[in-house]
Amino acid sequence: MPRTSPTIEGIEPDLLFDEAFLRQLGLLEVIARRFARGEQRGERRTSRRGSGVEFADHRPYVPGDDIRRVDWGILGRLDQTLVRQYEEEEDLPVHLLCDLSASMRTQDDAKLRLALQTAAAVAFISLAGLDRVSVTATAGDQLQVLPSTRGKAQFLRILRFLKDAPRGGGTDLRAAVRRFCASHRQAGVVVFVSDFYDLNGASEALAMLRHRRHQVTCVQILDAREYDSASLTARGDLSLDDVETRARTEVTISTETLLAYQRAHTRFCEALARDCRQRGIAYVRADARTPLRALILEVLRRGGLLR
Amino acid sequence: MSFLGVPVGVLAPLLGTLAAVIAGLYLLRPRRPTLQVPFGALWTAVLGRQAADSPWRRLRRMRSLLLQLSLLASLGLALADPRVSGCGGGGARVVVIVDGSASMQGLRPLGPHQVALDRARARLLALEPGDQAAVVLASVPPRVLRPLGSPAAAIEALAQVPAPHGDADLEAALGLAATLIGVPAPEASLVLHTGEPRLEDLDASAVCDRMRCELSAVAAATPNIGITALSARRAPGDPSRVTLLVEVTNTGTSSRDVTLSVKAGRVSLYEELLTVSPGPPTRLHLRGLDAAGDELIATVTAEDPGDTGPRFDDEAHASLAPRAPLRVRFVSERPNLFVAAALLAMERPLRLETLTPTQARDDRERRARVGAPPPFELLIIDALDDRDPLPTEAVPSLIFDPFHVEARTFPVARGRRIIRPRITSRDALHPLLRGLVFKDVNLAEATALLPEEGDEVLLSHLQQPIAIVREVEGVPWAIFSFDPSRTDLPLRAAFPMLVARVLDMARTDDAGLATALTAGQPLVLPVEDARDDPTGPRDRVEFWSTDSTPRLQETALVVDGAVRVSISTPGTYELRMRRGDETPRALGRISVQGHGARATTAAVALEAEAATGAASPPADHDPLPRGRGPFAWILLAWCLVSVLEWRWFHQRRST
Questions:
Q1: Distance between CA atoms of residues B337 and B528, nearest Å
Q2: Complex ipTM, two decimals?
Q3: What is the reported pTM?
Q4: Dihedral of the CA atoms B163, B168, B171, B173 (nearest 10)?
């Protein structure tokens, strides 16, 4: 029987991972392909020379350098005054951008549940690596931000934030990313968890993130029951209810219509993946019924977000 | 353009309203199931692209509505029967109306019916080739024998005019003829041939104001007295007597003296001089006529036929159902020629069955197991030597010497055995013995019977009953305690008469039925023992006339145990059932009356209206002849198809 972390009041049971899984998460870290400029010391080496413990290089002494960094051995052997340089170890800003719109809440909240679990898992991994984690939840025209925080002790705070974050509303990724970028000027690793059901705004949102030099990983969570013609049992004269806009459309659904929708959905997802590839964005697609353990330990690792 | 009986101004709004209702029904759409989708924008794009890709899909919704509207238009056209003015030639249009009621009947060689047909034929022959003619039969309801067409076709239709019978609705026939002609046209003519004497007084202004009407009263000058009802049956208590019900109606305008006579074959049963007045029919109830034959003919003879009137004004037929044979079972151990001779000497038909006591008991037990009733009406038990109980039944019985064997049990208590008894007293008023002489009858021996309360003593020897009548289970048993073969009673004339009285005791009420129907009416006649095998030769019933030169009038196949036939010629017919090449079997006789009970009712009513000057309201004629079932079914089917199509449209491929 796997043990879960201590029961915490107010936290959804789905977000409470068992101890073994947390131990596995602690062994992972978020991959930063480019060194991001942190604000505090961390465990990540950066290209900057600083006050770390790992030796990096020598450079000539200039007035003003700390006299303690002068390599006296070199001075004695070569009669050159050089200063030891060390690698700067900084923390990595990890931004979790979660789409909690109404489109994530269909089919028994399966997509929403997996998105929250994914965000929580990545947040735990980042906190365990002494990275700074900020969480942004977008739902309709609402954008709620949890400022950057560090340390495992803040994990519960993140969980509470995810629990209390607003849900519902439409998906406007462009507006959400614009507001996100306005509040997160420091480039970092952005893990964007959404179904990306924004026909026109998804590509622009990703372009905006890349423009801000974020290292973006898109985790597209889909539910096959929503687009697979074999899973959709509805036929005949129906009233389509858009869960985001609440707009109703009376249509006649046939098998051909469902197949056409499935083809269009596939084309949309392929276009999103191609767009991500062209922009150097990691793209991971997961079904809502994918076990979280498999998603974190296998899919995201293969996708280059974790190691 | 004109519509048959319905103006365009009336029909168009009606059809428009129906079309609007149908379109409204398509707008009223049932609640659809809801499908929640997370990506509405993509759905919209897909559906929009599909609609653009497939124009037929856009028309699909309209397809059902167009189908409904086309159905409605077709139905409207079928009902309206549109005709364009001027179409079909510009000649005259003539509708000939022939009175088909019984008042047109007549027995003279050239009766009113034939005269009317001849005049109609002459009128049609006078038409030009470009003219149009139609034939309408004034019956109830009126019928179109031939719609507007060539005069030659109308002349051919005159041959389809059936023998006059029943009633006639002249006003409805006028209205139907006017509807056939269509729009008022001065060249249109209605020619009405009728036997109604006062037809000129008929208020036909609603029709004749619009077109020319020619009224030809072919029988107006002759009296017309008909036998409108004749039924006969045997008297319930005496099959040799007949009871007749005769109804005589005068459709003329003045009282007439006629002679009513009833004959059975050549035997005259009744003859009376009657003065029949116009108005309600004169009814006579004739009782006690001799049943001299099974076929009765009633005739009405005009006392003063005048110059043109017929000698015989009317004739009606009635036939009596044949008397069913009386089934008698005779139980005896030995041939009893006295009893058999007495039975076979009866005038009435008998079916005699002789059984031994053992056979009679076995048959009784077999019937008791299945609960079958006795297959006979009278049981005669001779003196039996065996010791078993007598095979008595709950039917009228004649039992001789039940104590022929002393140890035998019998419902009647016995007294002592009497040697050489003498009949010292008899109940001369009893129906069995009335008028019979039993003087000096020699008897070898008898057994004294001990009667109980309710028993009737017929014969006694010194106050000791030797013949009684006891009622057992509601039926009489005549019990004679002596063996007739050991007496000289069978040699007396009283013996066969006594047996005949016993037969009367067992007689059932077989007065027979008055088997007569009206000419032209459909007859459904059940046929017993008919074989309904579609693979073998079919049974058929032939209707042969019973006059001096029998001729085959009708032949009808037996279907589902009955024949369905309509005979148009009055008379008496003998029915014979023929099966393949077998010899035909006689089924009975049936009489066909010329007049029905309502034959001249309408004519009398019209006269009354004319006399009072009451203007009859304009007839509200349907564009369709009344009683046309298929149109109603078509309308119903259209409604059903419309509802199903509408419902199916909204539920098409829904899950």
A1: 35
A2: 0.80
A3: 0.39
A4: -30
